[in-house]
Specification:
Blueprint: E1 3-6, H1 12-23, E2 27-32, H2 36-46, E3 49-52, H3 58-70, E4 77-80, H4 95-123, E5 126-131, H5 134-138, H6 144-164, E6 169-176, H7 189-198, H8 207-218, E7 229-232
Parallel strand pairs: 1-2, 1-4, 2-3, 4-5, 5-6, 6-7
Amino acid sequence: MKTVLITGGSRGIGAACARLFAAEGYKVLINYEKSEAAANDLCKELGCEAFKFDVSDRNAVLNFKESLEARGITVDVLINNAGVSLFGLFQYVDAEAAERMYGVNLFGTVNCIRTFLPQMVEKKDGVIINLSSVWGEVGASCEADYSAAKAAVIGLTKALAKEVGFSGVRVNCLSPGVIDTDMNANLSVADVEEIVNSIPLERLGKGEDVAKAALFLASDSASYITGQVLSVDGGWKG
């Protein structure tokens, strides 16, 4: 049985990934920082395990890995999904809020990869799936910091895929469009209608749409795919 670790796995896209991977027979480990009740409920539903730590804290990630190794558990598939949003005019964004966003969205991804990659290289097998965003591809007004962090995730994905391909490790990136999750709950009805009208498939995405793409990238069907950015946006590029 393969083991998947999903960061930010208690809600939204992460929870959808947990449900789908569990249904496909994976041992599912989810990380959360604040949503303890949601994480516990999901684990009761799926029989998965939940672990509380902050991905932006490298020591916390290292300690988690050591706790898994003590139990003889290694991670076969790493899905770097943990993320926070940040909205506002660039020159007025709170510096601490921006630092926190970069810490989770970019350095959280870096920390988890740097921690679990050696296991994958050693066994010459593994899959890393990073979550970027459509804004990481095209940029968004009033989300410059968020766009920059997500663009960096794309750059990391492409570079790392070249670096570790010879070790049998594949690294790919998912780039969701507007997905109907808590992160976009602040959108008004008018905002949603305007966005939907601009999406060729005429609907917001669902967490399950992204989860299905993640499952494909983790599968043997994608064994010759690495260094790629797969857009899950209904044909919309902002």
